[in-house]
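Exercise 7. Given the encoded structure of a 443-residue chain, write a plausible sequence.
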C-alpha cells in the first residue's frame, strides 16, 4: 500500500465549515458520502474515530457468513480478514440487542484497504476534527467486531430503531492482510472478568444478582466476604469470597455446586422467591449455629482479628468447602416444599435447626474424616468425591432423606476413594519392599 500520507495527504483548512464544504464536494465527485470524525495517529498510521448510524454501518460492510462445516478444516486465513464467524456467538449478540433496551455495543475496529480522503482544520491538538469521504461501493473490512456487526445486522431486521442508533467505530488505513491479522490479535488482548468480579458487575444475570444481594443482606456475610479476588488469606478476618458464595448458591438451587447454568435458569425463573428463601435459611442457620452466631453478632470494629482465623483453622463451615456442604444440604431441605413458596415450612425450619445445631462442624469430628478432612493433618481436601460424601453424610446425620442421585454419588465417591487407597497402599508396599531389599544387600 502506498503511504496514505503521500498519496492522499490530509487537507487542512482554516475553518471547520471550509473542511465540511470541501469534503461534500469531494463526495459528490466520487458519488460517495462525507462523514464527520476525529482524526489522529498511532505510530505511523492514520486513524479516524467516528459514530455511524447502525443502518449505514451494516451497508458499508459486506455481510460475513460462516463457512460450511465441511469446509471449516480448509478455512484459508490468507484469504480472510478475520477468523470464521461463530454463529452461536453472533446469535448471543443478536438476542442481547433484541431484548435489552438500554444496550451497549463496544466500538468496532474497521480497516480501509485504500487511502481515505481527509479534510481537517488547523490545530496543535493531536486529535483533530475532520470530515472524511467514503466513495460509493468502497466497502470497509472488519478487523475486530465481526460478531457485533452481524448480530446488529440480524437484530436490526426485527428492531428498526437499531438502524437509527449510533455505533462507535475506529477506522485505520491498512492494505496488508498480515498486518490486519496482527491488529485483530492486538485488539483482542482484553483481560476477562474473574468469576467473583462478574457477581459485582453483571447485574442482569439472576445468579450474580442473587449472590450480590445475599452478600449484602444475609447476617453472616457483611464484612466477612472478600468481594474482589479468589482467595482468602488464612489470617484474614474474612471467611469467604464472592465466588465461594456463588457456588454455594448454585448448590442450594441444584444440589451440585458445578451446575451453574442449570442454577442460572432456575434463578431467572423466580429470583425474588429464591432470594427470600435463601435469605431466611441463612439467617436461621446463623442464629442457631454457635460459631456463625458469634461471628454475626460482632462486627469487624468489635475485634475478632484472631477469633476468625482460629475458627477457620478448626472448623469446616467457616471456609468455602463447608459453605458448599451447607448449600447442597439446603437443596434437599428446599425440595421439601413447592418451588413457588418463598417462606420455609415448619418441617424445613426443623431440618435447618438440626443442620445448624446438631452437626459438630469442628474438624476433629469423626463425621468429616472419611470425606473432606484429613484425620492426621486436619487439613481440608474439598475434592468433588470427598464433598459428595460429606454432603450425604450430613444429610444422613440430620435425618434428611437421600435421593437416588445421592446414592449414586456415594457409590461413585466410595469407589474412587477405595481405588485411591489401594493405589496408596500399593505404593507404600513397594517402598517397604525397596527398603527391605536395601537392608538385605547391606547385610
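Solution.
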Amino acid at each position: 500500500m502506498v503511504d496514505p500520507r503521500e498519496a492522499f495527504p490530509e487537507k487542512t483548512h482554516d475553518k471547520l465549515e471550509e473542511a465540511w464544504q470541501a469534503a461534500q464536494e469531494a463526495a459528490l465527485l466520487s458519488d460517495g458520502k462525507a462523514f464527520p470524525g476525529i482524526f489522529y495517529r498511532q505510530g505511523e498510521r492514520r486513524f479516524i474515530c467516528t459514530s455511524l448510524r447502525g443502518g449505514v454501518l451494516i451497508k458499508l460492510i459486506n455481510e460475513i457468513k460462516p463457512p460450511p462445516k465441511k469446509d471449516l478444516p480448509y478455512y484459508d486465513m490468507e484469504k480472510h480478514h478475520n477468523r470464521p464467524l461463530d454463529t452461536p456467538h453472533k446469535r448471543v449478540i443478536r438476542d442481547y440487542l433484541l431484548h435489552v433496551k438500554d444496550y451497549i455495543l463496544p466500538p468496532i475496529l474497521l480497516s480501509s484497504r485504500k487511502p481515505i480522503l481527509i479534510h481537517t482544520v488547523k490545530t496543535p491538538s493531536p486529535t483533530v476534527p475532520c470530515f472524511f469521504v467514503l466513495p460509493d461501493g468502497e466497502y470497509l473490512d472488519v478487523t475486530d467486531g465481526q460478531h457485533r456487526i452481524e448480530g446488529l445486522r440480524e437484530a436490526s431486521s426485527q428492531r428498526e430503531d437499531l438502524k437509527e442508533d449510533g455505533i462507535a467505530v475506529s477506522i485505520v488505513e491498512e492494505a496488508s492482510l498480515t498486518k490486519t491479522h496482527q491488529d485483530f490479535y492486538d485488539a483482542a488482548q482484553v483481560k476477562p472478568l474473574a468469576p467473583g468480579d462478574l457477581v459485582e458487575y453483571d447485574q442482569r444475570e439472576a445468579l450474580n444478582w442473587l449472590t450480590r444481594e445475599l452478600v449484602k443482606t444475609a447476617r453472616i456475610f457483611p464484612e466477612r466476604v472478600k468481594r474482589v479476588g479468589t482467595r482468602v488469606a488464612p489470617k484474614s478476618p474474612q471467611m469467604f469470597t464472592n465466588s465461594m458464595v456463588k457456588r454455594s448458591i448454585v448448590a442450594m438451587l441444584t444440589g451440585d455446586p458445578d451446575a451453574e447454568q442449570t442454577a442460572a435458569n432456575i434463578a431467572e425463573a423466580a429470583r425474588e422467591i429464591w432470594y427470600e428463601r435463601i435469605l431466611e435459611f441463612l439467617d436461621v442457620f446463623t442464629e442457631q449455629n454457635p460459631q456463625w452466631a458469634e461471628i454475626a453478632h460482632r462486627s469487624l470494629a468489635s475485634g475478632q482479628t484472631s477469633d476468625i482465623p482460629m475458627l477457620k483453622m478448626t472448623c469446616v463451615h467457616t471456609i468455602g468447602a463447608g459453605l458448599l456442604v451447607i448449600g447442597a444440604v439446603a437443596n434437599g431441605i428446599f425440595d421439601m416444599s413447592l418451588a413457588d413458596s418463598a417462606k420455609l415450612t415448619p418441617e424445613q425450619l426443623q431440618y435447618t435447626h438440626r443442620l445448624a445445631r446438631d452437626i459438630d462442624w469442628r474438624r476433629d469430628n469423626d463425621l468429616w474424616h472419611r470425606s473432606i478432612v484429613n484425620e492426621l493433618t486436619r487439613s481440608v481436601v474439598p475434592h468433588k468425591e470427598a464433598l459428595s460424601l460429606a454432603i450425604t453424610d450430613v444429610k444422613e446425620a440430620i435425618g434428611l432423606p437421600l435421593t437416588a442421585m445421592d446414592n449414586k454419588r456415594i457409590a461413585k465417591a466410595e469407589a474412587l476413594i477405595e481405588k485411591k487407597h489401594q493405589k496408596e497402599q500399593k505404593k507404600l508396599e513397594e517402598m517397604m519392599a525397596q527398603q527391605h531389599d536395601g537392608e538385605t544387600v547391606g547385610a
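Remark. Residues 4-187 form one domain. Students should compare their own answers with the one above.
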